[in-house]
Design a protein that fits this description.
Elements: E1 2-6, H1 12-21, E2 25-29, H2 33-41, E3 45-46, H3 50-54, E4 59-62, H4 67-81, E5 87-90, H5 96-108, E6 112-115, E7 118-119, H6 122-127, E8 130-135, H7 138-148, E9 152-159, H8 163-191, H9 196-203, H10 211-214, H11 238-255, H12 260-277, H13 286-289, H14 296-299
Parallel strand pairs: 1-2, 1-4, 2-3, 4-5, 5-6, 8-9
Antiparallel strand pairs: 7-8
Helix pairs in contact: 4-5, 8-11, 8-12, 11-12
The structure holds nicotinamide-adenine-dinucleotide (NAD).
The site of nicotinamide-adenine-dinucleotide has 26 residues, from α4 and α11.
C-alpha cells in the first residue's frame, strides 16, 4: 500500500519507519530536512512537497505538533490533493473542536477520516508499541486499524469523530494529576522521616498505588528504571504535559465539566515550565515541589 506520512518528528519518524518495515511504500514529507534525511535512512521515500506525497496515496497519516498545523495541512493540502478513496488518519494530539471540524470537512468532501492520537512516548513510537485511541465511524475504524496495528500494540475505538482526542486528554489529565500527587506524597514522606524505598514498597501495594508510582516513579533509585534515573532526560517532556493539560482545561470549559484537580495540575506544570523545566521529563515536577531536590548548581 502507498502511504503518505506528514510530520516526521520525534514520534512520526519512528512510526513511519515501522510502516516501511511492514512492507508499505511510505512517501514522507516534513518541513525539516533533518527529519526527511532520517526518514530516508529508515526506508521511506522522500517527497518534495506535501502535494507530491499525498497524490496517489491509499492512506494518509499526519503526526503534527498542534491543531493549527493539522487544520492547515488538511485544508490547504490533504483535502485538495488526496484521492477520495484514501483513508485519512490524524495521529497528532490536538483539541477536540479542531478534530471534529476537520473531520466534518473531510466527510463533506467525500473522505473517510479518523482522529487516532497515541499514548506511549518516543520509545513506543520507535518500538511499534503505541496505544491508539480512535474517533470516527465504524467503517473508518476498520479501514484505519490495519495501518495503525503496524505501529502499535493496541488500537481501540473510542467513539465518533473527536472521541479519540477526548480519550487522550482525559487520560493525560489523570496522568498529570496523579504524577503531581505522587511527587507530593514522596516529598511529604521524606519530610516525615520515612525511607523513600520503604514508602514505595508500602504504597505500591496499598490503595495509593497508581501508574505514576509503580511504572514511572519520580524518585531516582526507587521502583523500576524511569527518567528519574537519567536525571529526568528523555521520556515525556513537561512542556507536552502542559500542552495536554491546557487542551483538557479548554475542553472542560467548553463541556461545562468541573475539573479542579486538572486545573491544579495545569497551574503546577505552567509554573514548572516557566522556571525552565519544559524540556525535562514531566516527573521532574518533584524538583519544584520540594526544591531541596534541586542541585545547588541549578538553583543559582
Ligand atoms: P515534533 O515537534 O518532534 O514533530 C512534529 C513534526 O511536524 C516536525 O518534524 C515538524 O517539522 C513537522 N511539521 C510541522 N508543520 C508541518 C507542516 N505544515 N508540514 C509538514 N511537516 C510539518 O513533535 P512530536 O514529539 O513528534 O509530537 C507530534 C504529536 O504527537 C504532538 O501532537 C504531540 O503532542 C503528540 N505526542 C507526542 C508524544 C511524545 O512523547 N513526544 C507522545 C504522545 C503524543
Amino acid at each position: 500500500m502507498r502511504i503518505a506520512f506528514i510530520g516526521l518528528g520525534n514520534m512520526g519518524g519512528g512510526m513511519a519507519a515501522n510502516l516501511a518495515k511492514a512492507g508499505h511504500k511510505v512517501v514522507a514529507f516534513d518541513l525539516s530536512q533533518d527529519a526527511l534525511d532520517r526518514a530516508k535512512a529508515n526506508g521511506c521515500t522522500v517527497a518534495k512537497s506535501a502535494e507530491a506525497a499525498i497524490k496517489d496515496a491509499e492512506a494518509v497519516v499526519t503526526m503534527l505538533p498542534a491543531g493549527k498545523h493539522v487544520a492547515e495541512v488538511f485544508r490547504t493540502n490533504v483535502l485538495l490533493n488526496a484521492p477520495k478513496s484514501a483513508i485519512l488518519m490524524d495521529c497528532s494530539t490536538i483539541d477536540v473542536a479542531t478534530a471534529k471540524a476537520v473531520e466534518g470537512e473531510a466527510q463533506a468532501a467525500g473522505y473517510t477520516m479518523v482522529d487516532a492520537p497515541v499514548s506511549g512516548g518516543i520509545a513506543a513510537a520507535d518500538g511499534g508499541t503505541l496505544t491508539f485511541m480512535i474517533g470516527g465511524s465504524d467503517d473508518g475504524f476498520e479501514r484505519a486499524r490495519p495501518f495503525l496495528e503496524k505501529m502499535g500494540k493496541a488500537v481501540i475505538h473510542a467513539g465518533g469523530p473527536g472521541a479519540g482526542q477526548a480519550a487522550k486528554i482525559c487520560n493525560n489529565m489523570l496522568l498529570g494529576a496523579t504524577m503531581a500527587a505522587t511527587c507530593e506524597a514522596f516529598v511529604l514522606a521524606g519530610k516525615l522521616g520515612l525511607d523513600l524505598q520503604t514508602f514505595y514498597d508500602i504504597s505500591s501495594k496499598a490503595s495509593g498505588q497508581s501508574w505514576s508510582m509503580t511504572s514511572y516513579c519520580p524518585v531516582p533509585g526507587v521502583g523500576p528504571q524511569t527518567p528519574a534515573d537519567r536525571d529526568y532526560q528523555g521520556g515525556f517532556a513537561a512542556a507536552l504535559m502542559l500542552k495536554d493539560l491546557k487542551l483538557a482545561m479548554e475542553a472542560a470549559q467548553a463541556a461545562g465539566a468541573y475539573t479542579p484537580m486538572g486545573g491544579e495540575a495545569e497551574e503546577l506544570y505552567q509554573r514548572f515550565v516557566d522556571r525552565g523545566g519544559g524540556a525535562r521529563d514531566f516527573s521532574a515536577l518533584i524538583k519544584m515541589i520540594d526544591d531541596s531536590w534541586i542541585a545547588p548548581a541549578e538553583k543559582s
